[in-house]
Design a protein that fits this description.
It contains 17 helices and no strands. The chain is mainly alpha-helical. It has two domains: about 400 residues, no CATH class; about 60 residues, no CATH class. α3 runs antiparallel to α11, α3 runs parallel beside α13 and α4 packs antiparallel against α14. One of its GO terms (molecular function) is chloride channel activity. Pfam families: Bestrophin_2.
Length: about 500
C-alpha cells in the first residue's frame, strides 16, 4: 500500500502553513540573510575585504550538524514514544472493557458480598464501569495539556456519577480530591475578579448554559461531545478542546522582548501600584489516578465476591497497572524537556556559526553568498525548530499527536464492545448461513448436522464419519492455498 503524500494532499490553509518551521524561523532567516547581504555588498563592491579564513568552517560545520541531528532524533524518539504509549492505553482499555463485559455475569443472588441483582441492574453496572473506563484517556489528555480539574465538556459527563464527599454529611472539608480542584479555581477566580482581571477562558465558559454547554463546533459541524450523556453541571464546563489563540507575538517573537521591556518600565514608573498576589493552598488532583482507583476498587469487588475467576481478576489488575505505567511514561515525556543549558548553548553556537558563515564563504562564492547563507540558515534553523516543536507532542499544534482522535477511537471501541450481546454459541454456530467446511464442502451447518455420523465428502471418496471430515478439511486447506497465492 502506497501512503499518501501529506505535503501535497489536502488543501493548504493558514493553520497548515503555521505548522511548518518557516513561521518560527523567518525572523532569524531574515537577519542572517541581511548580514550576508551586507558582507557581500561591502566585499564585492570593493569597499573593504571582509573575508576571513575558512579553516574552521568544515570542522565546526560537521560537529554542529551532528549535534543538531542528535537533537532532532532525540525529539522524534519522544514523539514516537508518546504515540506508542497512547497505543498501549488503547490496548489496555479495550482489553479491560472486554473482560468486564464478557466475563462478569448478569444474574446474581444474595451470596457473600453479592446481593440479588437483576440482569438490567448488572448491565447498567458494567456499562457504567466502561463509561468510567472511557473517561480515563480523556482525563489523561487534559492531564498532559496541563488542564486541571474535571469540568470539561468531554470529561465531566463521564464521571459525574462518582461520589464527591468522604461521607454523607457533604461537608466542604470532606470533598474528595477528584472534586477538590474546582473549589480552588472558584477562589482564584474570585480573587482575579476583585483585581479586575478575570481570565478570558473563565468568562467564556461562564457565558454558556449549565446543562450541557454547547462547545464551538469544528468544521463540518463536527461535535463529538453530542454523543456523551446530557448531565447538568453546577459550574460552567470548559471546552473539550481549547487551543491558545495565535497572537502577533507568535509570528514576531522579537516583540516579546519589547513587551517585557515595557512591563519593566511601567512597573518602575508606578511602584506604588504593584500587585499583591494572594497565595492560597492548592490541591492538584491527578484525575487519571483517581479514575484508576475506582477501576481497581471494582476489580477487587469482583474478586472478593467470586463473580469472576482468579485469572480474570489478575488480567484486570494487569490492565490497570499497564494504564498507570503508561501515564507515568507520558508524564515523564511531558515534564522532562531537554535541559535549558543544552538548548541555549546549541542555539547560540548555531547563531555564531551562521553569523560568521558569510565572512568565510564570500571570497569564493561572491554574490552567491546571499542565497547560500539563506539556504544554510533555513536548513539548520529548521531542524533545530523541528526538534523544539515535537519535543512535547501533547499540545494543540498541528504537528502534535492528535489526542482527541485517540480518545474518540477508544470511545468507539468501548461502545462496540457493549453492543456485543454475548449469545450462546448454539444460537449462531448451526445457522443455515454458516458453511464451516468451505470451500471443499459448501453445505450449511444445519445440513451437516442433519447427516449426523453418516457424513461423507461431496465426492464420496472416503468412508462415512470422521475419515470424510478429515478428508474435507485437508481438501479445504489445499484449495485455500491454491486460490490465495498470487504470482508476483
Amino acid at each position: 500500500m502506497v501512503a499518501s503524500n501529506t505535503l501535497f494532499s489536502g488543501r493548504w490553509t493558514v493553520e497548515r502553513l503555521n505548522a511548518t518551521v518557516t513561521s518560527d524561523t523567518w525572523p532569524e532567516l531574515l537577519f542572517f540573510t541581511a548580514v550576508a547581504t551586507a558582507v557581500a555588498v561591502v566585499t564585492n563592491l570593493g569597499y573593504h575585504n571582509l573575508a576571513i579564513d575558512n579553516t574552521l568552517l568544515d570542522v565546526l560545520g560537521t560537529v554542529l550538524g551532528l549535534v543538531i541531528s542528535f537533537r532532532t532524533s532525540s525529539a522524534y524518539d519522544r514523539y514516537q514514544d508518546g504515540s506508542n504509549m497512547w497505543a498501549n492505553i488503547k490496548t489496555a482499555t479495550t482489553n479491560f472493557g472486554e473482560l468486564i463485559w464478557i466475563h462478569v455475569p448478569l444474574g446474581r443472588e444474595d451470596k457473600g458480598l453479592q446481593r440479588k441483582q437483576t440482569n438490567l441492574e448488572s448491565i447498567i453496572e458494567k456499562k457504567s464501569i466502561l463509561t468510567l473506563l472511557q473517561a480515563f484517556p480523556v482525563a489523561v489528555k487534559h492531564f498532559l495539556r496541563a488542564e486541571q480539574g474535571v469540568y470539561y465538556e468531554d470529561l465531566y459527563p463521564l464521571i459525574s456519577f462518582l461520589p464527591r464527599y468522604a461521607n454523607d454529611q457533604a461537608h466542604e472539608s470532606d470533598r474528595l480530591p477528584l472534586w477538590h480542584e474546582r473549589a480552588e479555581d472558584e477562589d482564584e477566580q474570585s480573587v482575579n475578579h476583585e483585581r479586575g482581571e478575570t481570565l478570558v477562558e473563565n468568562s467564556r465558559s461562564s457565558s454558556r448554559s449549565s446543562s450541557r454547554p454547547r462547545a464551538k463546533k469544528r468544521k463540518d459541524n463536527f461535535d463529538p461531545e453530542a454523543a456523551l450523556p446530557d448531565v447538568k453541571s453546577e459550574v460552567p464546563l470548559k471546552l473539550a478542546r481549547d487551543p491558545p489563540e495565535k497572537t502577533v507575538y507568535d509570528f514576531i517573537p522579537l516583540l516579546r522582548f519589547f513587551r517585557w521591556v515595557v512591563r519593566v518600565l511601567l512597573k518602575k514608573a508606578r511602584p506604588g501600584e504593584a500587585r499583591h498576589r494572594k497565595y492560597k493552598a492548592h490541591v492538584e488532583s491527578n484525575i487519571p489516578l483517581e479514575i484508576s482507583l475506582f477501576l481497581a476498587n471494582y476489580t477487587a469487588f469482583l474478586g472478593r465476591s467470586g463473580l469472576v475467576q482468579p485469572d480474570i481478576t489478575t488480567a484486570l489488575q494487569t490492565d490497570i497497572r499497564a494504564l498507570r505505567d503508561t501515564v507515568s511514561n507520558l508524564e515523564r515525556i511531558c515534564n522532562t524537556p531537554l535541559p535549558f543549558a543544552y538548548q541555549v548553548h546549541l542555539r547560540l553556537s548555531l547563531w555564531l556559526y551562521l553569523l560568521f558563515l558569510p565572512f568565510q564563504i564570500v571570497d569564493k562564492l561572491k554574490w552567491m553568498t546571499i542565497p547560500g547563507t539563506a539556504f544554510a540558515s533555513f536548513l539548520l534553523l529548521g531542524f533545530l525548530e523541528i526538534g523544539q516543536e515535537i519535543e512535547n507532542p501533547f499540545k494543540y499544534a498541528v504537528n502534535d499527536l492528535d489526542l482527541d482522535y485517540f480518545c474518540l477511537d477508544i470511545q468507539r471501541q468501548l461502545h462496540e464492545i457493549t453492543a456485543h450481546t454475548n449469545p450462546d454459541p448454539s444460537e449462531f454456530v448451526f445457522s443455515p448461513l454458516n458453511q464451516p467446511f468451505a470451500p471443499a464442502d459448501k453445505r450449511s451447518a444445519a445440513q451437516l448436522v442433519a447427516l449426523g455420523e453418516n457424513y461423507v465428502t461431496p465426492e464420496n471418496d472416503a468412508p462415512a464419519g470422521t475419515h470424510s471430515i478429515r478428508r474435507t478439511l485437508v481438501r479445504s486447506w489445499r484449495d485455500v492455498d491454491k486460490l490465495t497465492r498470487k504470482a508476483y
